[in-house]
Automatic annotation (TrEMBL):
GO CC terms: chloroplast
Pathway given in the UniProt record: Amino-acid biosynthesis; L-methionine biosynthesis via de novo pathway; L-cystathionine from O-succinyl-L-homoserine: step 1/1
GO biological process, alphabetically ordered: methionine biosynthetic process; transsulfuration
Lineage: Eukaryota, Viridiplantae, Streptophyta, Embryophyta, Tracheophyta
The protein's Enzyme Commission number: 2.5.1.160
This protein's record includes keyword Transferase: yes
Protein name from the UniProt record: plant cystathionine gamma-synthase
Reaction equations catalysed: O-succinyl-L-homoserine + L-cysteine = L,L-cystathionine + succinate + H(+); O-phospho-L-homoserine + L-cysteine = L,L-cystathionine + phosphate
CDD domains: CGS_like (cd00614)
Length: 535
């Protein structure tokens, strides 16, 4: 063990990476503000987007000042040589006569650890206004121009501290972070030292995911939560005062509606519920109430209705209200809600972002100010995303652009095919000219996703027969993943209501929601053709 530790000290290299070499100067880093919301909240770091701040105690950390000079291209010019042993390089177990290179490396180990981001490490950390630690992300834009690149590299290739030789982001499974001495803790509290404190307030793996999502959404900040529902609930509770009013839409994820209708009233919060395209209804709701927030999906679940984000954001802002778009159906690729004027965009990451039907989570992106407000309540309520889940989302995001490209294409092809089929009564898909907001969708989206809702020409039983005849999709809730999924909303999401109640929400017995995965288009089409032949 000791020998391999020594070997590691000798050979640990700071690899140059020419394509990513043009880091901003320290001066630039200092002048570009980026906030680290408040003590105890998750940290953002100066040129180090997501450093792993602590190591297991048996890691020996050594900084080579020489290597440090040679490695400015990695932002935090640092070498962290890790030894899995408590036995130091000069210890008997390591060999009685270490060669000179070892000795110099050992000498260098007396340098302060850059991972501690201590006050003496000016190259990586500085206290901004109010002591906030700041970092720069604008430097990404020169070479990460497209979502395809951002999904893969944002928040990871620049400025992530090198901890191991791993290509992937380490999963930091810890519930708390230690301070070597009380003075460090006080420095942290007074914002002279950047660190994490407690797992509910932040985690290095999660920070990578937050920054990746911020890049994709063009947001200053992103907060992760344990589920999409958790995200909606914390957002609504954080931004609407007791006794306040919100506007929402008739078509939406049912549990969101249930929360708005049954839980928010306990805090005296009331809601106006409007048709997604009824701008007049929005205007009168804004005139007649002191509206804090218009909270709406776009596209909506399950009818894929679209809200004119630019127009409604202007109306909301004129009336002092915020706009939050639940962009779960759109993905962060097909629609840029913030650029269109929304104040916040949220996602059930469980769907396209994760993309593999194996993890649940939610996220909210927006300005530092609004996300800080939401974060404060989130840190109290505690619906935190597990770092293992964060890792799965980071991995899922790397293929988001490929999956969504395929799902956009399959969704569009299937919507057209289904609309032309005599056994299909109606198709709901924003890419179809027959969709009520087709022109709007063409303006504000670049693709329409893999979910197609449609009505079979038949009753409950006929529709069940169609669904049960399908061979490829799973009969299941959820959508947006690699595997195709089919469900009959009247049964899966609304079975507890009588048909008359379901009809209030246009959830008819013959409605099918089909989430196309990334299987071959022709296979999926052949499956639908044979299932339609059965009915
Ligand atoms: C549009 C939309 N928003 C939010 C949610 C809730 O997300 P989660 O299931 O991750 O809690 C869902 C769930 O299906 C959804 O469809």
């Amino acid at each position: 063990m000791a020998v391999s530790s020594l070997h590691r000290v000798f050979t640990f290299e700071c690899r140059s990476d020419p394509d990513f070499a043009s880091l901003p100067s320290t001066e630039n880093l200092r002048s570009t503000p980026r906030h680290f919301p408040a003590a105890g909240l998750s940290a953002a770091f100066y040129g180090v987007s997501s450093p792993i701040l602590r190591f297991p105690p048996n890691f020996q950390r050594q900084l080579s000042t020489k290597a440090r000079r040679n490695c400015s291209n990695i932002g935090v010019a640092q070498i962290v040589a890790a030894s899995w042993s408590n036995e130091g390089a000069g210890s008997p177990a390591a060999g009685a006569n270490p060669v000179p290179a070892v000795a110099s490396a050992v000498d260098a180990a007396t340098a302060p650890l850059p991972v501690d981001l201590g006050a003496d490490d000016e190259s990586v950390v500085d206290a901004g206004k109010n002591g906030a630690v700041q970092t720069n992300r604008s430097s990404y834009s020169s070479f990460l121009k497209t979502d395809a690149s951002k999904t893969i590299h944002a928040a990871e290739r620049l400025g992530r501290a090198i901890v191991t030789d791993a290509i992937t982001t380490p999963v930091v499974n810890t519930s708390a972070y230690f301070f070597k001495k009380t003075a460090d803790l006080i420095d942290y509290k007074e914002k002279r030292l950047a660190s994490y404190e407690y797992g509910r307030y932040g985690n290095p793996t999660s920070t990578v995911l937050e920054e990746k999502l911020s890049e994709l959404e063009g947001a200053e900040s992103t907060v992760l939560l344990a589920s999409g529902m958790c995200a909606s609930i914390v957002l609504l509770m954080a931004l609407i005062p007791a006794g306040g009013h919100l506007v929402t839409t008739t078509d939406c994820y049912r549990k969101t509606r249930v929360f708005i209708e049954t839980v928010l009233p306990k805090m005296g919060i009331t809601a106006s519920v409007i048709d997604p395209a009824d701008v007049g209804a929005l205007e009168s709701a804004l005139e007649q109430n002191k509206v804090s927030l218009f909270f709406t999906e776009s596209p909506t679940n399950p009818f894929l209705r679209c809200v004119d984000i630019k127009l409604v954001s202007e109306l909301c802002h004129k009336n002092g209200a915020l706009l939050c778009i639940d962009g779960t159906f759109a993905t962060p690729l097909n629609q840029k809600a913030l650029a269109l004027g929304a104040d916040l965009v949220m996602h059930s990451c469980t769907k396209y972002i994760g993309g593999h039907h194996d993890v649940i989570g939610g996220c909210i992106s927006g300005s530092d100010k609004l996300i800080s407000e939401i974060r404060i309540l989130h840190h109290i309520l505690g619906g935190v995303l597990n770092p293992n889940a964060a890792y799965l989302f980071i991995r899922g995001l790397k293929t988001l652009h490929l999956r969504v490209q395929q799902q956009n294409s399959t969704g569009m092809g299937m919507a057209k095919f289904l609309e032309a089929h005599p056994k299909v009564k109606r198709v709901y898909y924003p890419g179809l000219p027959s969709h009520p907001e087709h022109e709007l969708a063409m303006r504000q989206m670049t693709g329409f996703g893999g979910v197609v809702s449609f009505e079979i020409d038949g009753d409950l039983e006929t529709t069940i027969k169609f669904v049960d005849s399908l061979k490829i999709p799973y009969i299941a809730p959820s959508f947006g993943g690699c595997e195709s999924i089919v469900d009959q909303p009247a049964i899966l999401s609304y079975w507890d209501l009588p048909a008359s109640e379901r009809a209030k929400w246009k959830i008819y017995d013959n409605l099918v929601r089909f989430s196309f995965g990334i299987e071959d288009f022709e296979d999926l089409k052949a499956d639908i053709v044979q299932a339609l032949e059965v009915i």
